[in-house]
Design goal:
Order of helices and strands: EEHEEHEEEEEEEEEHEEEEH
Helix content: 10-25%
Oligomer: single chain
Pathway: Amino-acid biosynthesis; L-lysine biosynthesis via DAP pathway; DL-2,6-diaminopimelate from LL-2,6-diaminopimelate: step 1/1
Structural class: mainly beta
Protein name: Diaminopimelate epimerase
Radius of gyration: 19 Å
Subcellular location: Cytoplasm
Organism: Kibdelosporangium aridum
Keywords: Amino-acid biosynthesis, Cytoplasm, Isomerase, Lysine biosynthesis
Number of helices: 4
Number of strands: 17
CATH class of the largest domain: Alpha Beta
Strand content: 35-45%
Bound molecules: ligand LBFN2T5F
Shape: globular
Mean pLDDT: 94
């Protein structure tokens, strides 16, 4: 029996002292890639880029790598045509206010939120994203498996870090990645500055992964995300890294654990596409002060 939406955070919040309704939020993370979840069940929230930047700011806002607006597909103007208009849609925004097509860690958290809020039943369901409908499965232990679609190789290029060039594979996982297999320890890299990349191959920017093999069934990875900076994990990036590793080894399919700064996920590349399994953690529920929200417009 699913919980009703009123049991959790997505009913109308009480009015504040000024008589206006505050705005519900949930904070959570997937392998420490952290997000503010904003339930917008009737599609009325005006989520401007400026408000996203304020929310994600770790000093003047809540602090996060991104924002996940929970909304019906019908309310999203740029939703792909194969997304169910009556289904839940993950409207993902990067911390700098930009829109991205897909977010793997965010989608695990989004799925966990839907179940927790009684908006979906535990088990298998489909979530709409800007890279299309994504089947998800929530597990008893709190982990979530995502069907991520194909990881498509579209070229070779270089990332430049501290003046050094690292060859990599360009991979489309709904969003663009440059996954570079390196010999050295990723922990030694300085990712405080965005890695240089080829703007012709990546006209809309790119997420850069630097990874090395760590035993027979694991890789170690760091990532610099487009629109965010270095994060402690990137779900689509882990899929890109495993796809790149297999591509370089001329293996069409395979699987690997991926160790990121914030934990471990498992990626499988199959004939049909790819899956990503990892944790999703709901940390807190609260309310944004409406006056703060209005001032951040
Ligand atoms: N952290 C995400 C990816 C978020 C989008 C990315 N920064 C982009 O701009 O493409 C993940 O877990 O996949």
């Amino acid at each position: 029996m699913p919980k009703t939406s009123s049991t959790r955070c997505c009913g109308s919040s009480p009015r504040n002292l000024s008589g206006v309704r505050d705005i519900d939020f949930v904070k959570g993370h997937g392998t420490e890639n952290d997000f503010v979840v904003l339930p917008d069940l009737d599609g009325t929230l005006d989520l401007t880029a400026s408000r996203v930047r304020a929310l994600c700011d770790r000093n003047r806002g809540l602090g996060a790598d991104g924002v996940l607006r929970v909304v019906k597909g019908a309310a999203v103007e740029d939703a792909p045509s194969d997304v169910d208009p009556d289904g839940w849609f993950m409207d993902y925004r990067n911390a700098d206010g930009s829109i991205a097509e897909m977010c793997g860690n965010g989608l695990r958290l989004f799925a966990a939120y839907l179940v927790d809020a009684g908006l979906a039943e535990r088990g298998e369901f489909v979530v709409g994203t800007r890279s299309g409908p994504r089947p998800v499965k929530t597990h008893e232990d709190g982990s979530v498996t995502l069907h991520m679609g194909p990881a498509r190789v579209f070229g070779r290029s270089h990332a430049t870090v501290s003046g050094e060039g690292f060859p990599g594979v360009a991979i489309d996982v709904g969003n663009p990645h440059l996954a570079c297999l390196i010999d050295s320890d990723p922990a030694d890299l300085d990712l405080t500055v965005p890695p240089g990349h080829d703007p012709v191959l990546f006209p809309h920017g790119v997420n850069v992964e630097l990874f090395r093999r760590k035993g027979p069934d694991a890789i170690q990875m760091r990532v610099h995300e487009r629109g965010v900076g270095e994060t402690r994990s990137c779900g689509t990036g882990t899929v890109a890294a495993v796809a790149a590793m297999l591509h370089l080894a001329n293996q069409p399919t395979g699987a690997s654990y991926v160790d990121v700064l914030g934990g471990r996920v498992r990626v499988e590349i199959t004939e049909d596409g790819s899956t990503l399994t990892g944790p999703a953690v709901l940390v807190a529920r609260g309310r944004l002060d409406r006056r703060w929200w209005d001032s951040a417009s």
